[in-house]
Amino acid sequence: MGILLEISENLQRGKAKNVKELVQQAVDEQIPAEEILEKGLLAGMNIVGEKFKNNQVFVPEVLMAARAMNVGAALLKPLLAQGDNVSKGKVCIGTVKGDLHDIGKNLVKMMMEGKGLEVIDLGTDVPAQTYVETAIKENCQIICCSALLTTTMPVMGEVVRAAEKAGIRDQVKIMVGGAPVTESFCQQIGADVYTSDAASAADAAVELCKAAC
Amino acid sequence: MTNRERFIKTLKCEPIGGQVPTFELVFFLTMEAFGKVHPSQRYYSQWNQMSYAEKSLHMNEMAQLYIDTAKKYGHSAIFVHPNPGDLEHIQWLLELIREKSGNEYFIMMHGDPTWGIPDGQTMMDFSIQMYEEPEKLNEESAKRVENALETARKLDERGHLLDGFALCSDYCFNVNPFFSEDAFDELIVPYLKEVIAEYRKMGYYSIKHTDGNIMPILKQMADCKPDAIHSLDPQGGVSLPEVRKIVGPDIALAGNVNCGLLQTGTDEECRTDVLRSLREGMENGRGYIFCTSNCAYTGLQLNRYEMMIEIWKEYGNYDRMKF
Question: pLDDT by residue (tens digit) across B65-121?
Fold first, then answer.
């Protein structure tokens, strides 16, 4: 079995210690960091994401895989910084104002990072203006809003309007999700994409970033 | 029959005729409905400094608020959130409700020692423990079960004024459960089964609640033999007839009115959903408790909840089914 495949398989099983050792071994064998990242770590996370969408694995398995991914990526980071590696896109994510729930938001963040996106986590209880200011300052391609409460969902509409008012609506895509959020709500407030689960959100974000390039 | 008797017969899946029982895990809208803060939202910073007379006024007022809520909306059961929540005050609250309303209502409170979905801050650590130290989680579960049973025993010894427990640890997201079937079998099932069996031996009923898509673990939950399964969350894609097929006719089903839709839908959409839930729930002629798929939560429009109750009054009667 090739070492990259081994990295991918150990990552899928959440074996952080093994992944760390294997990534180090791959680095020592002079395999380029980009290749280790793409064909080892990200390949493993992609499989985990697909299995999650198909109900073959569940959130704890995703978290374990993400932990293994982070351990491996930390070893590669200094090497990647030396090359021309750039992230696949930049997202700012947060749970909207008035809402302190962070489970869904954290999962989406983890899955997006697992796809190679750079994610700025704004936390919970985030005012509409903060999303927009961050998107401008950090040059994000995507604003991602989460809400668990029907009573806080309307803030997502405020984010759309704030982006319009700031004149960046055509430069940024707005994604929405959370237990009470639906496709029709997404359309109603003028957001761009609704997804029903974290893995689909990460897939959609990658596609949006590709289209933006 | 009293409301309590109707509720108990429904939990036993016996036919009752007449109106389908209803209740809510929490009816938070007491300020709008009665001009009073819901007991679970109160913070008594100087409770221990209060005279007995003052405490008594507060306790009586809370007890009366629970009863008034049940009376106004036709609830058959009262879910108490004792505040303060120590055993002494739980017992005091139960005594007051029984003094004021006799055995008219089924009374329940929280009592779930099993693990639920952890919050975002602790989820990673919990997940690591699930895979690397499951025995530690199970040791903790055993202690939690013993603590829950200890409370149940003490309440039993003090007159058994409580009828049952709602086991409210959430296991599921909208898309799927947090626990895989294997993890659920290892970390939840033994303790859920034990606590329900022990509650039953003491004469308590158990209503197992969880939000989200319960379908992948539903059979495992049903095998733990709760008296009822609550929430049946349409936002998690849960269908009442599908649940019935899996759990059989001897576990009561409660919930399924889409509480998200009550907030965001049109009147017509809500009406359609409430009627659907009633029709599907009443189909078996027994073992169905009408309620929202979570609770009457803070922020829900009171008029929407009242509309739901008006539809229930008109259509939720076994003796004059209009479907």
Answer: 999 999 999 999 999 999 999 999 999 999 999 999 999 999 999 999 999 999 878
Summarised one tens digit per residue, pLDDT across range A168-195 is 999 999 999 998 899 999 999 999 999 9
| Residue-wise DSSP of A91-150 | EEEEEBTT----HHHHHHHHHHHHTT-EEEE--SSB-HHHHHHHHHHHT-SEEEEE---T
Contact B130 A151 (CB under 8 A): no
Name the minimum distance, in Å, from the CA of A56 to any CA of chain B.
9
Mean pLDDT computed over every residue of chain A: 92
Q: Where are the domains of chain A?
A: 3-82, 90-212
Q: How confident is the model at residue B34 (pLDDT cuts 50, 70, 90)?
A: very high
Among chain A residues, the shortest Cα distance to B179 is held by A58
The mean pLDDT of A11-15, rounded to a whole number, is: 95
Test mutation, A50, A58, A64, chain B, max B CBs within 10 A: A58
Q: In what order do the strands lie in the sheet with B77-80?
A: B77-80, B106-110, B164-167, B205-209, B228-231, B252-255, B288-289
Is the pLDDT reported for residue A85 higher than 70? no
Count how many Cα atoms sit within 13 Å of the Cα of residue A86 in the half-sphere of its side chain. Answer: 7
- The CATH homologous superfamily for domain A3-82 is Methionine synthase domain (1.10.1240.10)
Whether the per-residue pLDDT at A83 is higher than 70: the answer is no
H-type helices in chain A, by residue range? 3-12, 16-28, 33-35, 43-53, 59-82, 103-114, 128-138, 154-165, 183-189, 198-212
Mutate to test the interface with A, among B115, B172, B175 (most CBs of A within 10 A): B175
- Residue B177 contacts residue B214 (beta carbons within 8 Å): yes
Please state the ipTM of this predicted complex.
Answer: 0.84
Residue B304 CB neighbours (<10 A): 19
Residue B251: the pLDDT is 98
Using a CB-CB distance cutoff of 8 angstroms, which residues of chain B are in contact with residue A187?
none
Fold annotation for B3-320: TIM Barrel (3.20.20)
Decide: A121 and A110 in contact? Cβ < 8 Å: no
Terminal Cα-to-Cα distance of chain B (whole angstroms): 25
The structural domains of chain B, with segments of one domain joined by +, span: 3-320
Edge-to-edge strands of the sheet including A173-177? A118-121, A90-95, A142-146, A173-177, A193-194
List pLDDT tens digits, range B12-27: 999 999 999 999 999 9
Place domain A90-212 in its CATH homologous superfamily: Cobalamin-binding domain (3.40.50.280)
Average confidence (pLDDT) over B147-172: 98
